[in-house]
Design brief:
Length: 70
């Protein structure tokens, strides 16, 4: 079973969670990096396993954030 509630999906979520934590820990441990850069995190997810009506259920990021500033 590879649906949204499958063990494979749960394993993938745990892997991403660990990887993001490792990245956050590495950035926090690098004092020079922390002093030099203002790091902003944007974490997004693809909810492609569920039906979404593109006409009514999609949020267009550029309606809220200037993509030219990213």
């Amino acid at each position: 079973n590879t649906g949204p509630w499958s063990a494979g999906v749960a394993d993938a979520i745990r892997l991403v969670d660990r990887t993001v934590q490792q990245l956050a820990d590495a950035i926090a441990a690098d004092e020079a990096l922390a002093r030099t850069y203002n790091i902003t995190w944007i974490v997004v997810a693809d909810h492609g396993m569920a039906y979404a009506d593109a006409a009514t259920q999609v949020i267009h990021l550029d309606d809220y954030v200037s993509l030219a500033d990213i």
